[in-house]
C-alpha cells in the first residue's frame, strides 16, 4: 500500500516525521483529505485538528495557523504550534478561551492584535474539542 511521508514542524521542534496512510488538514477553505498520489499544492492552514493514520491508528493534533506543502508522496506542515491530546491541559485551554473571548468582547483590538487573539481562541478551542472527543470515546 502506498504511503505519504508526513513532517510536522513548529518553531520549537519537529513534532512528527514518518510514513502515514492519510492526512486530514484544517485548511482555510475547509478540511482537506490527503492520500498518496495527491496533486501537488501549497495551502494555508487554520487552527484546528490535524488527523493522520499511522500504523493502523488515528493520531490527532491540535495545530495553530500555518502552511502545508503537498506532493504526490509527502505532506510538509509548518505551523505555529502542534499539541497532541496527552499534552493538552484542559484547564489552561479553557482559561485561554475565556481571556480571548473577554478581549474580543471589549472591541478595542485592531489589526495584528485582533488576529493574534482570534488565532489564540481558535487554537484553544481545537485543544478543548480534541480533549472532549477523547473522553467521550
Describe this entry's structure for a reader.
Helix content is 31%, strand content 42%. α1 (90-105) runs antiparallel to α2 (111-136). The two termini are 29 Å apart. The protein has 2 domains: 4-85, Sandwich (ATP Synthase, domain 1); 89-136. The chain is of the alpha+beta class.
Task: Give a quick summary of the entry.
This protein is of the alpha+beta class and 137 residues long.
Strand order of the largest sheet: 2-1-9-8-5
Number of strands: 10
Q: Describe the main β-sheet briefly.
A: 5 strands, mixed
CATH topology title of the largest domain = ATP Synthase, domain 1
Low-confidence stretches: none
Mean pLDDT: 89
Q: Given the structure, what is the number of helices?
A: 2
> From the helix content, strand content and strand pairing, which structural class follows?
alpha+beta
The CATH homologous superfamily of the largest domain is called F0F1 ATP synthase delta/epsilon subunit, N-terminal
Gross CATH architecture of the largest domain: Sandwich
Beta strand %: 35-45%
Describe the global form. globular
- CATH C-level of the largest domain: Mainly Beta
**Rg, nearest Å:** 16 Å
Distance between the termini: 29 Å
Helix percentage: 25-40%
User: Secondary-structure element sequence?
Assistant: EEEEEEEEEEHH
Count of discrete domains: 2
